[in-house]
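Re: the request from the purification team.
They wanted to know what the chain is likely to look like in 3D before they choose a buffer screen. I agreed to run a prediction and write the result into the notebook, where they can find it.
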Amino acid sequence: MSSFLHRAGGWRRRPRIRAAVGRAAVGRTVVGRGGAARSRRPRERGNADGELERALLTERAQFARQLDIELQVACRSEAAARHELGIVARALCRGHAYRRLGFVRLSDYARERLGVSARTLHAAAWVATRLDALPLVTAAFDRAELSWAQVRAVCAVARPDDQEQWLARARATTVEELERIAHAVRPNGAGAGAADPDHDDGTIDSEAALRLRIACPARVRALWRYALELASRVAGEPLAAWRAAEIIAAEAFSGRPAGVSLVDRAVLACMRLARRSDSTTAARRTVTDPAASSLTTSVSSEHSPEPTVAPESRSVATGQAGATREPERSDTAPSRAASDPFALDARLVAAMRAIRTSEPRIGRLLRIVVDKHLYRTHGFASFADYVRERLGISIRKAWALLKVERSTRRDDDFAQAYDEGAISWVCALTLLPVVDRTNAAAWIARADAVTVRRLADEVNYVLEARDLCGADAPLDPPPLDSVLVSPVAQAIATSTAVTSTAAAATSAASVASAVTSAAAAAPSAASVQIGAHAPSQTLLTKFDTGRRAALEVCDVEIQFTAPVSVVALFREALDAYAGPGAPRWLALARVLQHVITYWEATPRHRDPIFARDGWRCIVPGCSSRRNLHDHHLRYRSRGGGNARTNRSAVCAAHHLHGIHTGVVRASGTAPRAIHWQLGVRSDGPPLLTYVGDRRCPDACWQHAPGAEQETG
């Protein structure tokens, strides 16, 4: 800062001598404070730092480029294996060939045999079917010119006569813009087939999807888990969390407290939120590219119906449309070798093995990209843009791979099993909540020994016990072949016994004291639904007081994604059971109390075998909960009796089309020592063998002579 000098005539600014001298002395020798001469050369430290920074940036760019190449190669390999998976899955779904393997549902086969969902198989088969009708797109995909995301977007709208235009558009635009154009065309009827089964447009059942979160104590989440199981039993099939929540809310409304009126506050709020979400999505999907808009307009005009069509023209158009759709369906029957269910199963397992080895590698590389923000090196502002545009996979799958990758680092054994493909994708997701360094080896061994259905039951049992009993309950797997009884159901049964004993003692002691106790319990009983049992009230409303409820810690969270109407219905049910000034989770506990009490009090079926087997088909891997039959392991016509050890609960499909047709065989003693054979064939061993829910190696299976004639 310059200073001022006072002279006659006023103040004037002092000249900046030091700055001038400093500028003039650059590169010269000047005298320092100590009188020694020193050289004023330009600083070399700044140049060194700049060179080091440029070297680091160059090294970072080279590392990011090499990592990007490895990621693209892994994603290409995974996409090629997924295409092969779709080709074989289409052949398997044709004629329900999986039933010859001992499975009555594609979802059960995909989960138990391949470790994926049925949606994955349907989506891969859909892409393979559409690619058969688009040879140019198929050739571009085989040459690695199109990613899996681009292929899915093009297959949703392209036809054989305009596939060149869509192929050119896919090469010239981004994946996001291509999906936007395809979405603008699809509502106008330009799609040449069924919609993509794996298309995620942010809706569920054609409604906007909302996520509901409720913080609560851990014991309330244990009740929630048990209520989900009861809802599946009532519905007769496995239910997603939001479908079970819809049934729970409807049941709660049917027994809402007297005097509670139905209001639409939650419905209106959810509808407003859904409307805002729809407007945001519509604005995001608006096509702004003039060339894309012209393509959309031309395709829409080609598919717009004409006002009047002559009969001859209509027949010609119908013939042309049939010829266009002809590649999607094969009129020629496939060869016997190509349609053999066991050969198809072997090809599917091989394709899934390739996918299992590619996905861990993709997740491992993606973790480095996210941790180091390497996507910015390639010019992408967000990780989602990099994944969609550069790798051609969905952001949902990328985050799922990252979640599993980070979770598998908890233990080396778990990470090694996942990297080598020893555990499937479904098994890895199932084990994530319970695996730690102390029990990883035990859970991996359990996943290899039992069915995925049994593994999910054991994980749910352990988590329910942890929520109910706290940290005292271990996360280790339960004993093999043990009977899994819900900890909540056990607590309710214990409370029932204690309450019954106390009531009998009170009645025998004094009638007057019983009357006094009933009068004292009247205020709390007023909040219980009609027909509710006292035991469940003791368990569920353990802290149902204002002071204790306010002090209880909400250490967990219940969350699910559902259509806006289901979220509104569930919130209305919570409002109906909410007390003034009470926390939100207390209303949820009261709702769960009502539905559990009502469903547990429902009269049981007269056949005790169904209750013993858990109201489900006990054929290994079957998820059916309805149309149950009481099957005799040894037929009564062949000397079998009606003892419970000779009877088992199986679904009608497995009973009529599996056991009685010879595809499935069962023998032994019910319920834990039944020997199962799935996929029985005359020219080889069965596809799968089990004892109960335990897998058995093929070499260990020694079928008794003549057992085929004695058992079903």
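For the purification team: The two ends are 102 Å apart (CA to CA).
Please add any questions underneath this entry.
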